[in-house]
Amino acid sequence: MSKTVVKKGIIPAAGWGTRLFPATKVLKKEFFPIIDQDGRAKPIILAIVEELLSAGLEEIAIIIQKSAQPLFENFFKTLPQPELYAKLSPENRDYCDYLQEIGKKITFIIQEQQEGYGHAVYCAKDWINNQPFLLSLGDHVYRSETEISCSKQLVELYQKVEKNVVGLTVISAEILHKSGVVSGNWQEKNSVLTIKKTWEKPTREEARSQLHIETLPENQFLALFGLYILSPKIFDYLGQEIQNNCRYRGEFQLTTALDQLCQNDGLIGYVVRGNYFDTGMPEFYRKTLIEFSKF
């Protein structure tokens, strides 16, 4: 029996970036620069796209605001101005060609109203066309601890189990307020988990009483890493939440639909052998600038 191949990926990038204001008054946060291991300055969105392509994906949809489309189109699908191109080194001219090839694999989908992460994902329903897909946060970049990228680690597990797979990481109680947290039972100790429950930004009391995982210290929990491989069934649950106006803190979230997917269809968690770097808040973006190029 042939294995299901994950061909498509989604990157929601339609937020306002309010936590990085006033810089986001003039530049979308997805285009803030980071330095990679090769010393190349690149926008965050490119690092995320490259991460997904490393897993063998053929197409990527980026969910954006209508007003941001010229910026995204210009970067991924347009050559630099001739004056700039003429000043580039031969290496950077080759890199321009590389960007054009990446651009051929990218589709832009407009989120007309910014109503949360879950709503942004739902905007790609028709484009996904009833296929499994790889989903990434739009403000995280990733670095594997092995030769296999973080995204490819998830794809390889998905091809073995052919079930919904989400990346996990161990976090301390101090950052529960910014995390989706899971509980469940180990299939493979400290590696593969059968998830029983997901919870968006629990309190310490909620996490300790309902989400603690055997083998972890009392003050540590398993949180969502920011990479997911999901069946198109997730759109049914997202659609129900949108239709019924079920919001969390005013927005449609992914985590609540994930919990429904978990209860009805099953959800496997994988502790990714790698690190994620959050770029969505000033203090974390500063840390990413320092640490990302070192790994």
TrEMBL record:
Entries under SUPFAM superfamilies matching the protein: Nucleotide-diphospho-sugar transferases
EC numbers: 2.7.7.9
UniProt keyword list: Nucleotidyltransferase, Transferase
Nucleotidyl transferase domain residues: 8-285
GO molecular function: UTP:glucose-1-phosphate uridylyltransferase activity
Domain of life: Bacteria
GO biological process: UDP-alpha-D-glucose metabolic process
Keyword Repressor: no
Enzyme class: transferase
Family: Belongs to the UDPGP type 2 family.
Protein name (database record): UTP--glucose-1-phosphate uridylyltransferase
Organism: Gloeothece verrucosa (strain PCC 7822)
Top-level taxonomy: Bacteria, Bacillati, Cyanobacteriota, Cyanophyceae, Oscillatoriophycideae
